[in-house]
From TrEMBL:
<protein>
    <recommendedName>
        <fullName>VOC domain-containing protein</fullName>
    </recommendedName>
</protein>
<dbReference type="Pfam" id="PF00903">
    <property type="entry name" value="Glyoxalase"/>
</dbReference>
<dbReference type="InterPro" id="IPR029068">
    <property type="entry name" value="Glyas_Bleomycin-R_OHBP_Dase"/>
</dbReference>
<dbReference type="InterPro" id="IPR037523">
    <property type="entry name" value="VOC_core"/>
</dbReference>
<feature type="domain" description="VOC">
    <location>
        <begin position="98"/>
        <end position="207"/>
    </location>
</feature>
<dbReference type="InterPro" id="IPR004360">
    <property type="entry name" value="Glyas_Fos-R_dOase_dom"/>
</dbReference>
<dbReference type="InterPro" id="IPR052164">
    <property type="entry name" value="Anthracycline_SecMetBiosynth"/>
</dbReference>
């Protein structure tokens, strides 16, 4: 999974290495020897995931036919305002400090489901005891979740693995960030929504205290609901 943060590169480089243990070289964030994220300048501040596709050029055409828009920077905006990129398949990394999940949140989840099915052929499934809806590629790869937001434009939200969510939220505060929702146990791990020193929101997730796992749950769909 690859994600980029758009905004002030200097502010991002001061915040995320201290939180996740990253090493930043020429705008690329490394966790150990593995590149896990990018930092890019941008007026719209936020985490931007790159959805994995086999053929980027073909995927761009399918996005346009489904109603999406392509920007000059190569990023895609879906019909609901959520921005994402396209990239070739990548290895998954689940260790603390790695991006492990993305979730589309908007006011029109049914319409969003239709768009991503038409553009990418995704299947939608219930996963976990709470009936969480996930996107999956036809080959079975879990792509991300589908959620609902009460207001504002749609967005893709990025989840990062941490060893301990409670400790990580304290680090966020010490680095000049904010805690938007306090740590709590969920079906998928102990989660907290936070914002960095630029106000960019993201989610911390750990299974250390709750004993459950986001990726374990979403790998085992219970009921197919679409696709």
């Amino acid at each position: 999974m690859w994600v980029d943060i758009a905004g002030d590169p200097g502010a991002a480089a001061a915040f995320y290495p201290a939180l996740f243990g990253w090493r930043v070289e020429r705008g690329v964030c490394h966790l150990g020897e593995r590149a896990v994220a990018g930092i890019r300048p941008g007026r719209h501040r936020g985490w931007v995931p790159s959805l994995p596709v086999d053929d980027v050029a073909d995927a761009r055409q399918r996005v346009l036919r489904a109603g999406g828009r392509l920007g000059a920077d190569g990023l895609v905006t879906d019909p609901f305002g959520a921005v994402f990129g396209l990239a070739g398949p990548d290895e998954e990394a689940y260790e603390p400090g790695a991006p492990v999940w993305v979730e589309h949140r908007g006011r029109e989840p049914e319409q969003a489901r239709t768009f991503y099915q038409e553009a990418f052929g995704y299947l939608c499934q219930h996963a976990g005891p709470a009936g969480y809806v996930t996107f999956q590629a036809p080959g079975g790869l879990a792509i991300g979740g589908l959620g609902r937001a009460a207001r504002g434009r749609a967005e893709w939200v990025t989840y990062f693995s941490v060893a301990d969510t409670d400790d990580a939220t304290e680090t966020v505060l010490a680095l000049g960030g904010r805690v938007k929702t306090a740590p709590e146990d969920s079906d998928f791990g102990r989660v907290a929504t936070v914002a960095d020193n630029q106000g960019v929101a993201f989610v911390l997730v750990s299974t250390a205290r709750s004993g459950s796992g986001l990726l374990t749950q979403t790998d085992k769909p219970i009921v197919t609901i679409c696709g």
